[in-house]
Automatic annotation (TrEMBL):
Membrane-related topology note: Multi-pass membrane protein
Species name: Comamonas brasiliensis
Main location: membrane
Signal sequence segment: none
InterPro entries: BioY (IPR003784)
Protein name: Biotin transporter
Gene name for this UniProt entry: bioY
Subcellular location: Cell membrane
Amino acid sequence: MTTTPSHTVSRGGARSMAQVSLFAALMAVMGLIPKIDLPFGVPITIQSLGVMLAGVMLGPWRGMQSMALFLAAVAVGLPLLSGGRGGIGVFMAPSAGYLIGYALAAAVTGAIMAALPQSTPRRAALSAFIASVLGGLLCLHAFGVLGLMLIAKMSLSQAFAVTLAFVPGDFIKCILCALIVHTVARGLPDWRFGGRR
Ligand SMILES: O=C(O)CCCC[C@@H]1SC[C@@H]2NC(=O)N[C@@H]21
């Protein structure tokens, strides 16, 4: 019978925690890049690329944890959202649906990434693109639309029109995510995208 030494387990756990923290920190760094404000209260921000990256790089569970950690830091008042915003009030603003969606979209992105081929850098990049479009774009926007309807009291068609404005930019982020995965897959061939075992 083979047993796993306890130090191996704790080393894996520590590595996992470090990766979760790293992607939460990456979101904070992305928050330093200025947002572009649009009239309806939802800014253009690079942070949605961080959501996609957390999902494809860490997988559903740890990707979601990293976003939850980031959102918890924002909720307690750290000014980590683009433009230096933070505090519980941001979860009552028109963009709150997107914010809540960060954690769930990372989970969906990660789950899709885990299910798709990644045997070569090119396949991993294509899988990352598909996972980002479905999770980091479609799923995130679904939460955004829900938030706009519940908080900003928009109709479904108004909320849909608002979210459509972000699609071209977010599509470019999906391409960037795929390019980053391609680079990581070439440089770190052992990396398990989507948290695959
Ligand atoms: O910082 C916030 O208050 C949340 C902003 C949410 C912005 C959403 S995320 C998806 C879409 N893409 C963007 O660039 N902006 C919106």
